[in-house]
Amino acid sequence: MRKILVDKVKEGMVLGRTLYSSEGNVLLNAGIILKSSYIAKFKDLGIREVYVEDEISRDIVLKDVITEETRFEARVNIKNAMDSIRYGNSLDVKPIRDSVCKMIDELMDVKDTMVNLQDLKSNDQYTFSHSVNVCVLSLITGISMKYDEEKLKEIGIGAMLHDVGKIKIPQEILNKPGSLTKKEFDIVKKHTSYGYELLKKSKMLSTYASYIALTHHERFDGEGYPLGLRGEEIHEFARIVSVADVYDAITSDRIYKKRININEAVEYLIGMGGHQFDYNIVRNFIEHITIYPPGTCVLLNNGEKAIVVDVNKKYPNRPIIRILMDKEGQIPKEPVEIDLTKNNTLLISDIIDDI
Ligand SMILES: [Fe+2]
Fold it and tell me: How close is the Cα of 328 to the center of ligand 1, in Å?
């Protein structure tokens, strides 16, 4: 199985994972053979990527760090929480806390967790999917920093709710294609204080959650907002959530910008370590990121094109690959698999959308 852009989906490919609407209804079941009418519908619905089983990815296994069920439930729970606040009801924290506890249990079960986030973000679900991803990434960083369960719960709940203030920002600004004017950006910035105000009211939440909502856009070098805090003036929880938030945002396609590849995102975080981010947190964070997840199409330094079949945890830049196209553009007659840890001359030079 592999995740591909809807633009690259061809008739006859098999849907690898069931597609759900943001309400949790099944849109299309896994296993269905894709027709051109379905592909057109994906585009109408703002779905940009899908999982497919095709000739080149048939036996590739994609493993998420949390189960599909837990991810799905968490997304519904954060959606319900934001909806209930939007309609003026009080926040029921229990479903959020339950989801966070499930994620912690699942993440603690795996030794050496390597993140390969298996998620699809359509426009209408972006904030919910993003909240769950930021939570998973923050928890993994917390685990890597030897947090106990209590601290993990605090940061997890705060991460899930970090963008809750966005319910007060007009959708046309949040989903505006193209860059924001200064005035619009000033409005977006307010989601931090709105989130703080909303969460502060809840007696079921500790102060960490409202604090994370308020300070997740502060920067280590003092250049962030809304308070311009710097370094350790920013609580460690917020410093972690801020790395997770930026990483997930830049590796996601949005209406106003195309995502960057995981390898580039990791480079960006390292480059920003000590400036925008706490370097120690970046170090703990990137240790658990799978740079070339299975199913990724890559270009090699000798001009061949390949697909990643499996990862080598100790050598993130050197996964096991299968050659799909040789230098002359020919498809090999027999599948050739290469473990890049055993071949010193071959390197991955780029990630490509498809072959
Ligand atoms: Fe935010």
Answer: 47
